[in-house]
Design brief:
The structure is a single chain. The protein has 138 residues and is an alpha+beta fold. 19% of the residues lie in helices and 21% in strands. It has three helices and five strands. It has a five-stranded mixed beta sheet.
C-alpha cells in the first residue's frame, strides 16, 4: 500500500510555519528587525537633532545588512551591542518588561545609544539617549 505524504507548510499570506518549526530557527543568524512601539515619548528619535536622525537611518540600513551574530561580535561602540544592567537604567522601566529581560544598547549616532531589548530577531527600542547620560550610567 502506498502512502502519500502531506506537503510541508510554506510561509505565505495564509499559511505559516508551525510554531515548533519557528522555535528551531537561530535568530542570531538572521538580520535584526526593529520595533518602536514602546519608545518613551520623552526619549524618542523625534526628539533628536537632525544629524542624529540621519545617522539613525544610516545605522538601520547597516544593521539590516548584518546578522545578530555580526552585531554581537562587533565593537560595542560601533555597530555592536552593549548589555546594560537593569540597575543602571535611570528611567522607569515599562511595566510589560519582566525581570528576565536583558537591556542592550545599539549605537545610532556616534556613541549615542538606543536602549531596548532583543526578542527573537526583533530589537524593541525603548529610549534614545541623545545626551548620553539620561538613560543609564556609562
Amino acid at each position: 500500500m502506498m502512502t502519500i505524504r502531506k506537503p510541508l507548510p510554506k510561509r505565505g499570506n495564509r499559511v505559516g510555519l508551525s510554531p515548533s518549526a519557528e522555535d528551531q530557527i537561530d535568530n542570531n543568524q538572521l538580520s535584526p528587525t526593529f520595533c518602536f512601539h514602546y519608545v518613551d515619548p520623552e526619549y524618542c528619535i523625534t526628539c533628536c537633532e537632525k544629524d542624529d536622525i540621519v545617522a539613525f537611518a544610516q545605522h538601520l540600513r547597516k544593521f539590516s545588512q548584518m546578522t545578530w551574530n555580526d552585531i554581537i561580535q562587533a565593537d560595542r561602540h560601533k555597530l555592536g551591542r552593549e548589555k546594560i544592567s537593569r540597575s543602571s537604567i535611570k528611567r522607569p522601566i515599562p511595566k510589560h518588561l519582566t525581570e528576565d529581560v536583558t537591556f542592550i544598547a545599539l549605537r545610532f549616532s556616534g556613541l549615542k545609544p538606543m536602549v531596548g531589548y532583543q526578542s527573537g530577531r526583533t530589537f524593541h527600542a525603548i529610549w534614545f539617549d541623545r545626551d548620553m547620560k539620561s538613560i543609564y550610567s556609562h
